[in-house]
Amino acid sequence: MNIKRITTGLLAALMLAAAVAMPADNAPAFVKGTDITASAVSLSERDVRSKLYIVCKDGRKVYVAGGKGSMFSTSGIVLKNYGVAANEVVALQLEASLEDLPDNCDATLNIGGNYSIYNSSGGNYFSSYARGSAQIPGSKKFYNVMLTINDTDVAKIDFLAEYRNLTVEQGKIDISNAKVKGIARTYNGKAQDTQTNVTLDGKTLMAGVDYNFRFSNNTEPGFAKIIVTGIGDYEGTATGTFEICPKQVKVKKAVSTAKKTVKLTWKKSTHCTGFQIVMATSANYKSGKKVVYVKKNTSAAKTIKNLKSGKKYYIRIRAYKKVGKQKIYGRYSKSLTVKCK
Predict the structure, then answer these.
(1) CATH superfamily of this structure's domain 251-339
(2) How far is the C-alpha of 223 from the C-alpha of 34, rounded, in Å?
(3) CB 145 within 8 A of CB 53
(4) What is the DSSP string of 81-111?
(5) Fewer CB near the last or first residue (10 Å), C or N of the chain?
(6) Rounded to an integer, what is the distance from CA 166 to the centroid of its chain?
(7) What gap in Å lies between CA 253 and CA 263, rounded to an integer?
(8) Which residues are within 8 A (CB) of 203 and not within 5 positions of it... i.e. 6 or more apart?
(9) Alpha carbon distance 279, 77 (integer Å)
(10) pLDDT in tens, 88-108
(11) pTM, two decimal places
(12) What does residue 80 show for φ and ψ, rounded to 5 degrees?
């Protein structure tokens, strides 16, 4: 499978506000340009939505803060405001999701975390900065990192996280759910092809770029099959159909030799199931309309009865091919006129 990698040095930074306390002398400070970059860079169609939770000893997960985009401050998290006691905290959980990531993508995200912890004795700095980081394997769109807190007296927390080295692996797109259509053709005794139209999730794909195609069952009247195979960024197969219509019937004559009857004759056409004859007293076939079916394709004449004497009739015929419960019709013949006796 072809892989496309889209890598950015820094997707987003969650920055502390100015009020964040400086680390103690023994704290391993983040290095600017390596661990933290002042300017945040985002991809135009992908964004990070972050949620920070406090994880308690009893298994509760308490939502603290969240945001979308490149900047979001989490300084001064006072635990009592969230109904959490000072000795209940066991970890911070950062939940990050990548929005608008295509379904055919997996991603790997490096998360660097930094947090300051304050005890309950008036806000004095209690522990040095600790660094937590994790490389999260891409399971489509969701990522979690747990930062364990070993202190037993936590009253307030400042938290900083940064997302670095986002790698998106884009696999080929499955074409099997594509809609495949073709333009109807008329039977000519030869294998037929057609102009294909293939769409997937509203996008029109290009023949020779996104897919190749071939045909089967494409000589006789009926539904010919289109087989589409993905290429380039696409893989898999999809199928569709197009109609091969019976040939236009050639009429010979329409005569009325008996009262209230008209006889129509036509040139025999066997590459069909049968014929449909339409008669009317108006040229647009809307007034006095009568429809008659001839179910044998070996027939070449039909007498229509119970017509109105003295009326002028317009008459035409077309062949049809029956496929299951559907009928595929050919073009109508030219219209003939006849006065009924």
Answers:
(1) Immunoglobulins (2.60.40.10)
(2) 63
(3) no
(4) GGT--TT-EEEEEEEEEEET--TTEEEEEEE
(5) N
(6) 25
(7) 8
(8) none
(9) 85
(10) 888 777 777 766 666 566 555
(11) 0.57
(12) -65, -25
